[in-house]
Amino acid sequence: MARRRWFVMKQGKIFWFKSDVVTPDSVPRGVIDVNKCLSIKGAEDTINKANAFEISTQSESMFFIADSDKEKEDWINAIGRAIVKHSRSLLDHDRPDYTNS
After folding, report:
1. In whole angstroms, what is the distance from residue 18 CA to residue 1 CA?
2. Model's pTM, two decimal places?
3. 6-17+30-94 belongs to which CATH class?
4. Strand pairing of 6-10 and 30-33?
5. What's the CA gap between 10 and 91, in Å, rounded?
6. Rounded Cα distance, 74 and 4, in Å
7. pLDDT tens digit sequence for 39-85
8. Where are the beta strands (DSSP E) in 3-95?
9. What's the rounded Cα separation, in Å, for the pair 43 and 27?
10. Of 11, 41, 16, 44, which is closest to residue 28 (Cα–Cα)?
C-alpha cells in the first residue's frame, strides 16, 4: 500500500512531507539530495503503475507515483535538469585550465 507524501524541490534538494500544507514551520520527513541522484526516468512498466517514475542513486532506486501524466513529466524534467546542472558544474570544476602554463 503506497503512502501519500508531498514533495518540494528547493536548492538542489527534494524534501518530503506528510501533509500538503507546507509552511515555513513544517518539518520535512525526509530529504533526497539531487546531487546524489544519478538518473530519473518513467517507471510505469517497472512497477506497473500509471504516472510512476524512478529516481536512482548509487545505493538505491526510489519509486514515486504522480497524480497525473503531466505532473510526472514535470517532475522528470525538473529533476533531470537539476541532475544535468549538477554534473555539468562538476565537469566545469574538474576541467583543467589550458590557458595557464
Report:
1. 15
2. 0.82
3. mainly beta
4. unpaired
5. 22
6. 18
7. 999 999 999 999 999 999 999 999 999 999 999 999 999 999 999 98
8. 6-10, 13-17, 30-33, 37-42, 52-57, 61-65
9. 29
10. 16
